[in-house]
Amino acid sequence: MHILCIGNSFSGRYLARHFNSVTVSFVSRDPDLLHRQKLRVAQPDRDRYDGILDCVPPLANGDSIEWYSWPVIRSCLERQGTDLPLVHISSTSVFEGCQAVANHISDLPQCDEATPVKPGLRGARRVALETELRRLWPASWIVRSCGLYGPGRNALTLLTKAAPGFLQAEERVVNRIHVHDLLGICLALMSAYGSSWPTAERLLHACDQNPVRNRELLQFLQDTHGRHLQALSTTRLDPEIPAGTTGNAAGPEPGYQGYLVQSCRAERLAVPLRYGSVLDGLGEPLEDLLTET
Ligand SMILES: NC(=O)c1ccc[n+]([C@@H]2O[C@H](COP(=O)([O-])OP(=O)(O)OC[C@H]3O[C@@H](n4cnc5c(N)ncnc54)[C@H](OP(=O)(O)O)[C@@H]3O)[C@@H](O)[C@H]2O)c1
């Protein structure tokens, strides 16, 4: 299977290096970097592809958005025909405005593919691009990714870079998706492309099944990797939380904040997730988590 990946992205590199049955060719703003990273440079006017994976985010350009993928996609469609599967990776940040607080996790707002979007500033650009792509190419699949993580890009690597701020809101609940599972979903959609999915339903949420609060994630990292991480890290995990305890167990339990991302279509696609929770994904050996492979 030969995939054209638009953007030298974390996802595309993982696809190229971990899915043996797939050849990946890249379009990038920096072809020299592709060469240095030993990634295949696409030749869209000569190659034949079995699918296109678009990883390029929409960028602000005054009042409009900038997105360099469409001319590449259009020329491939013109050359190869309209059956060429196209998957664009969007983001569940289109629900940023749904955030709420609750006493129990199941009382947080639940957002599936049928839920009306409620974006903040960042998410608004995603919504604009989703709408534009629908208009340009209704047959395309849009996959909304939750917090994407994997080897070399995850909560642990952020901690080693002294960037723990993202975990400070302990009550925040976040759905995540391991890059392996995101790509499994994208490949399955490409295979199912010509099937009977109505075009209006070609939108899928890629999300884990058991989102956790930052509080539980931090505790897990402390318990599982804390000792090793402190040797590597410029930022320590909270030294007040000894391994195996719940930190401020005597204090009141913080509540839950955020929204829950779900999919009402994933079951129909029937792609089993390797990592149902970020706690599974970050339970891998430390050396496998710290560097992108
Ligand atoms: N990381 C997350 O938690 C998360 C969550 C939800 C959705 N997403 C989205 O899912 C898609 C795939 O994620 P990913 O992590 O695999 O992608 P990534 O590593 O962030 O790469 C995105 C690619 O888009 C291209 N690009 C063009 N203009 C850019 C700009 N101004 N800033 C950054 N990149 C630009 C770049 O390719 P070239 O430099 O090769 O042109 C870049 O390599 C992206 O659209 C991402 O934003 C990510």
Q: Can you give a write-up of this model?
A:
The chain is of the alpha/beta class and 293 residues long. It has one domain (2-290): 3-Layer(aba) Sandwich (Rossmann fold). The protein has 10 helices and 17 strands. The chain has helices at residues 10-18, 31-36, 69-80, 121-136, 155-160, 179-191, 214-232, 266-269, 278-281, 286-290; strands at 2-6, 23-27, 40-41, 51-54, 59-61, 64-66, 86-91, 100-102, 110-111, 141-145, 147-149, 172-174, 176-178, 203-206, 212-213, 256-258, 260-261. The chain has a 7-stranded parallel beta sheet with strand order 3-2-1-4-7-10-14, sandwiched between helices. A 4-stranded mixed beta sheet has the order 8-16-12-15. It has a two-stranded antiparallel ribbon with strand order 5-6. Helix 1 (10-18) crosses helix 6 (179-191). The model is unreliable at 239-250 (pLDDT under 50). The structure holds NADP nicotinamide-adenine-dinucleotide phosphate (NAP). The site of NADP nicotinamide-adenine-dinucleotide phosphate has 17 residues, from helix 1, strand 7 and strand 11. NADP nicotinamide-adenine-dinucleotide phosphate binds next to helix 1, strand 7 and strand 11.
